[in-house]
Amino acid sequence: MTEAGPLAVYAALVRWDWLREMKRKTTLLSMGVMGLITLFLFSFAIPLTSDKADVLVDTRAGILWVTFLFAATIGIDRAFRNDAESGLLEGLLLAPVGRATLYYARVTSTFLFVVSLQAFLLLLFLVLFNQSLAGDGLWGLVVATLATDLGFVTIGVLISAMTWSMPGGDVMLRILLFPMLLPIFNVAVEIADRAFEGHAPTAQHVVMLLAVDVLFLGAGHLLFEHLVKDSGGRS
Fold first, then answer.
1. Would you tell me how many other CB atoms lie within 10 Å of the CB of residue 134?
2. Would you state the pLDDT for residue 229?
């Protein structure tokens, strides 16, 4: 019997993780509830009346991305915590699978969870706040959101691997993650603001997002193996 190559192992891990979470539903449900609560709180805080119209125009991009970020952080926190609590993580780390393959598979599955949820939250946001997106603005927001998601999921999964075994690791993850996301969060809000006005992101925005993605991917590739060893994993 021939040994499966890294790509086959990677695809199998992504598929396994996706199907497992779809059956269990806890991660997506928790992310969805957090997103819904955040949107409803903002909808009450900024009433859709004529005298509040300027406030909504000034804050809508920030509201959207704060909602995205809070909801997605739950999925990132559970990237390894669920497996650790059930004992599956130890088995994965003992399996004859390259650490980089395991890392990229978990990044991909978490990325898919985040994107799936954000599509739903975006539609809900547009309905609740009576907003619209079309043309260059819509496609620009989609592309920029995917690039932003890749960056914060990549670094978030890396931090999750470091904090899952710590007491209060869920709080520590947010303390470490949020400051690191400030550069791409700022760019994402600017792109969303342009999108609501019907404009595509600038080349400078796209280049910055891609540069951060490459930086975070490189850090994850180099550090993941050492982090899982230090946080309780065994080779």
1. 9
2. 66
| pTM, rounded to two decimals | 0.85
Contact 128, 36 (CB under 8 A): no
pLDDT, position 87 = 54
CA atoms of 87 and 1, how far apart (whole Å): 29
Whole-number Å distance between alpha carbons of 138 and 133:
5
Q: How far apart are the first and last CA of the chain?
A: 25
pLDDT for the residue numbered 53? 64
Q: Are 69 and 181 in contact (CB under 8 A)?
A: yes
- Asked if 169 and 130 count as a contact pair (C-beta separation under 8 A), the reply is no
Q: For residue 104, what are the contacts with CB-CB under 8 A and spacing of at least 6?
A: 10
- Alpha carbon dihedral 216, 33, 84, 151, in 10-degree steps, equals 0
At 18 the pLDDT is 81
Query: Residue-wise over 45-80: b if at least 16 C-beta within 10 A, else e?
Result: ebeeeeeeeeebeebbbebbbbbbbbbbbbbbbbbb
User: What is the mean pLDDT of each successive set of 10 residues along the chain, which is 235 residues long?
Assistant: 68 83 77 90 74 76 92 82 59 68 87 90 90 86 92 89 76 88 91 91 91 91 76 46
- The Cα–Cα gap between 183 and 227 comes to 24
The pLDDT, as a whole number, for residue 9 is 82
Q: CB 218: neighbour CB atoms within 10 A?
A: 11
Contact between 53 and 196 under an 8 Å Cβ cutoff? The reply is: no
> Which of 83, 85, 77, 107 has the alpha carbon at shortest distance from 95?
83
